[in-house]
Amino acid sequence: MPGVFACYRFPPGGAQSRSQELGELRWYFLPDGSDKVLTTLDEINRHIASDPATPRPFPRPLKFRRERLKAIEAHIRTRDLKPRKSVTMAQVAGGQEASDGLKLVAWMDIAPTE
Question: Where are the domains of the chain?
Answer without folding.
Answer: 3-110
